[in-house]
Specification:
There is one protein chain. The chain is an all-alpha fold and 702 residues long. It is 73% helix and 3% strand. It has 36 helices and five strands. A hairpin with a 6-residue loop joins strand 4 and strand 5. Helix 11 packs antiparallel against helix 13, helix 15 packs antiparallel against helix 16 and helix 26 runs antiparallel to helix 27.
Length: 702
């Protein structure tokens, strides 16, 4: 996976370097875009290209289109079918000197319906037969007519079609009863007819059917029972003669087992493929493989063993879905909900803990904080009852997560510190595998946030540094992505623009490479917030793009905070009224989901934006600051309190209330360690000095 990431980075870099010299177009054909590596490459290019010098052209069928996460730089074009003139031009070009009557031309044009492949194949069929009026009625009939004229070629095509659109000579030779010379001759005739394309020379040759429809026509000409028998032979050949393929590509054997009706073996191979993808952190593939395994499992009779299989796969699917589609994705919720049902049916099974964790984190990210808190408490209770310390670590951190978002910061910090005290490095190193994320990294990251909010930035930075060190020790890609995402938010809390931007860009790169849309969206929002001065409009666009990507994952929990950052960026850019609309949206979401942790900040932002309007309403702004301070005091949120007191002090200075402003600002700064130094503290201290000088001058006019 690391090699793939490096290769992607090199490819993107080369494309962008070339684009500086001249325009570049990259073409991705229908048969290749579904490869997750290609999708990552395309998204990276889209993210990093800011001009029109790079064009990526992706072809696809209408019923099977890539989404690319709704990327704003994607434009969809619909290709219409060929007109009569274009169709006749293709036919005339292929016919050459042979010539075809106007009647045959009209017949071909009428039956091909403007589909280029159909035009080519029907024209070839007519030219091959030498009978000008004999136009087959369909593409399938056309292809089969060409195959029927050479029976041994037809049988080879059928056998190859069972292998797939692409096939190797080596595997085909193990299945075919023809002698090597006969088999090679048949393949040469298929290639000469442009039904297949060849790479290499037998016995090391590989072949590809010209089009999926060509392969389908040959495949469907076999009876279902015959196809099943061939697929079973393919499985045996791969297991016996190509064990390296069976080990490295279990999904290939899973597909052939399915088509052979060997459902139990198919489940085993698809499950193996899913486990391998999880180990590589190739999460989109893991989701696809495990989903297929579960579909095949439904075809088997229910039994205790099958229930255990399903439970293991649902939990694995939940972990993969968390990474590939996000904690709040419907697929994540379904996987963990089903896992909990299975655990309830089976009774005292250790899988109950990750099932409860999955449900809690699903509700948490969806913004159903009370439900998340309830399930997390169930997890702690069950873990204590069964004496499972690892599960207690996870349970306490999930309780802490919910409490933090509910605005209960002191209680939240206690829960995370409890979890951290219970964490045992050797025993709990597997937490990243069982619960998708390492618990110690998460506890330290959350505690860094809480310490910053509660007024101890020195300890917050120490927690963050400890989390960073542990991330390197764990070396788990998904945990690294979570740490980066939480880290860019942490730097934003501290108003550290360079640190926030660097961390956000690192988050975007890793999340794109890993296929982690949730963290990529968070990185985009924070990155956009760091765009100031002349970059303001670009930053606003990036925040909006990140918000859309975040919403696409089904998540809601961070949305009030992200909306606050958008409102702040709008205010900086001179769009105060738009910022007020965004703040209203954020406060509405706070009320709906109960995420009061950011409520004080949103009230402060509303006050700041009101003062930015041409006809500033100082009374309403002061009332907003009052509401913000009431919330912040109730939550012991020293950082939110300081920011609001600073904003209000500027207003009070304009109102001639310097002494009251000095008093409140002095008290607010007193909640922080003297050695602490952040942009918020520096701004508040500078304002305090200015106000003290002003108050002194007023007291002593002489």
């Amino acid at each position: 996976h690391q090699q793939r990431a490096r290769t992607l980075s090199i490819l993107v870099g080369q494309l962008l370097e070339l684009a500086r010299k001249k325009p570049v177009m990259m073409v991705v054909e229908d048969a290749h875009w579904a490869d997750p590596t290609t999708i990552e490459l395309i998204i990276q290019c889209l993210d990093r290209v800011s001009n029109s010098s790079v064009l990526i052209l992706v072809t696809s069928r209408p019923d099977n289109q890539p989404t690319f996460g709704g990327h704003p730089k994607v434009i969809r074009l619909t290709l219409n079918r060929l007109g009569r003139r274009s169709t006749e031009a293709i036919v005339a070009g292929m016919a050459g000197d042979a010539g075809l009557t106007d009647e045959v031309l009209a017949n071909i044009a009428a039956r091909t319906d403007g589909i280029p492949l159909f035009v080519e194949e029907l024209t070839k069929a007519v030219l091959d037969t030498g009978e000008g009026a004999a136009v087959p009625a369909s593409l399938h009939a056309s292809l089969m007519a060409r195959l029927d004229r050479v029976p041994e070629v037809k049988e080879v095509a059928r056998l190859a079609a069972c292998i797939g659109r692409e096939f190797s000579y080596a595997l085909l030779a193990k299945l075919s009863q023809l002698a090597a010379s006969e088999l090679q001759g048949a393949l040469q005739r298929l290639a000469a007819a442009e039904l297949v394309f060849r790479r290499g020379t037998p016995p090391d040759a590989f072949y590809t059917f010209k089009h999926a429809l060509v392969r389908d026509a040959a495949y469907e000409s076999l009876l279902k029972s015959s196809r099943q028998e061939v697929h079973a032979r393919i499985v045996e050949a791969l297991e016996e003669h190509f064990p390296e393929i069976a080990a490295e590509e279990p999904e290939l054997l899973g597909r052939h087992c399915m088509d052979a009706g060997l459902h139990e073996r198919a489940v085993s191979y698809w499950r193996q493929a899913g486990d391998q993808a999880l180990a590589r952190c190739a999460m989109p593939e893991a989701v696809a493989h495990l989903t297929t395994a579960l579909k095949v499992l439904k075809r088997l009779k229910n039994g205790h063993e099958h229930g255990q299989w399903e439970l293991a796969m649902q939990l694995a699917l939940g972990r993969a879905s968390i990474a590939a589609r996000g904690f709040a994705a419907a697929e994540t919720g379904r996987a963990y909900s089903r896992a909990r049902e299975l655990c309830s049916d089976m009774g005292d099974v250790p899988e109950y803990f990750p099932a409860l964790y999955g449900q809690s984190v699903f509700h948490f990210q969806r913004g159903d904080l009370l439900k998340a808190h309830e399930v997390a408490k169930d997890l702690v209770s069950l873990a204590v009852e069964r004496g499972d310390l690892s599960a207690q670590v996870t349970g306490h951190r999930m309780v802490g997560s919910a409490l933090c978002q509910l605005g209960r910061f002191v209680e939240s910090r206690f829960e995370f510190e409890t979890a951290l005290a219970l964490y045992e490095p050797v025993r709990d190193r597997s937490s990243a595998t069982v619960y998708a994320i390492d618990s110690r990294v998460m506890c330290l990251s959350w505690l860094a946030h809480l310490d910053a909010i509660l007024g101890d930035p020195i300890r917050a930075v120490a927690r963050y540094s400890a989390a960073r060190s542990h991330v390197l020790d764990v070396a788990h890609p998904h945990t690294t992505a979570v740490f980066l995402a939480w880290g860019c938010i942490f730097h934003q809390f501290l108003r550290d623009l360079p640190g926030a931007r660097e961390q956000a860009e690192a988050t975007i790169v890793l999340a794109t490479e890993q296929g982690l849309p949730l963290y990529r969206a968070a990185g985009m929002v924070i990155s956009g917030w760091t765009f100031v001065d002349g970059e303001a409009e670009e930053g606003i666009a990036k925040i909006r793009q990140g918000l859309a990507a975040y919403a696409a994952t089904g998540a809601e929990m961070w949305s009030p905070y992200f909306l606050g950052l958008l409102a702040e960026a709008l205010g900086r850019a001179g769009h105060a009224q738009s910022g007020l609309d965004v703040v209203a949206d954020g406060l509405g979401r706070v009320r709906r989901i109960g995420g009061r942790w950011i409520e004080a900040e949103l009230h402060r932002l509303r006050g700041d934006l009101l003062l930015s309007l041409p006809n500033a309403n100082r009374v309403d702004a002061d009332a907003c600051y009052g509401r913000s301070l009431a919330v912040a005091r109730g939550q012991s949120a020293a950082l939110w309190h300081l920011r609001t007191v600073t904003s209000r002090a500027r207003l009070w200075c304009d109102l001639g209330k310097e002494r009251a402003a000095v008093k409140r600002l002095t008290l607010a700064l007193g909640q922080f360690p003297d050695r602490a130094d952040t942009p918020d503290l520096s701004a508040a201290r500078a304002l305090l000095r200015t106000l003290q000088q002003s108050a002194t001058a007023l007291a002593d006019p002489a």
